[in-house]
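Hi R.,

Here's the input for the phosphoric acid mono(formamide)ester complex you asked about:
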Amino acid sequence: MSTLSCKHVLNMRDMTVEDIYLTLDVAKSFKEINERPIKKLPTLRGRTVVNFFLEPSTRTRTSFEIAAKRLSADGVNFAASASATAKGESLVDTAQTLDAMSCDLVVIRHKYAGSPHILTQNMRARIINGGDGKHQHPTQALLDLFTMRERFGKIEGLKVGIVGDIAHSRVAGSLVEGLTMLGAEVTLIAPPTLLPARPDYWGTSVSVSHKIDDVLPELDVLYMLRIQLERIEQAPFPSLREYARLFGVGTERMAKMKPDAIIMHPGPVNRGVELTSEAVDAANNLLLYQVNAGVAVRMALMYLLLGGKPEGISE
Ligand code: CP
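And here is the predicted structure with phosphoric acid mono(formamide)ester in place:
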């Protein structure tokens, strides 16, 4: 069986280009299975997967839970409020406690960047980063790459505009890396106050624009980010209304897009800020396709990391 070169998936750059394509190919098989009336496979029977989410999540937590169930793994969920973390237990002690229970895979979401790495140093289990602070969210990037590839048949050469709060976005942190690894051309579209200090860190295939209308007509993918109000410390723009006027997308800006261009968003959406309701519900907005793909991509990662037998799917 083909497998991944990495033991854990904490950052996009833990994966090679071959790892990414392998994950997308396996996810395609799982996506077909997810469309069958009976969606369950025995692949990970007897394996234990822990969802350790210390920050709110709807899409990531639920899709990992569904993915584990569809592969017949034993899934355990625990959240900050219901764990000893609320009593002050350290992350290292929690990791060692879970390790003592012989878990096979832990998915962690945490407000601090680097938390998944601490688990790798204190557990024998495989670790997947479900989002750490404003650092990385690799499974979101993988499901986004899957969606773009399904829509356009390739990633290489696509022109992708990522709009909004790039400075505070772990989604952008992983997606920019995934896109550049696979040969897409990325434009970061944001006011200077919502850009990272060194966008040139991502290399020459990433450019910057402060005016969405200048680049919109060229894009294949318009990837809108949520303003991360929970992470913003100072006022990077005068008001949400002003931000929506300069960077938000509604019917007027949608009319400037190429006929086959798509809108994407990782969710949750702030309706009326980055997207109007018309733009959220537009036929070329693949927001819910992304959610659907997320289950298949997470099944693929669990399968590849835990070395499940390929019963029921063709490799
Ligand atoms: N896209 C994403 O990470 O959504 P959740 O916060 O709902 O998991």
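One thing worth noting: The domain at 138-290 is CATH 3.40.50.1370 (Rossmann fold).

Cheers,
M.
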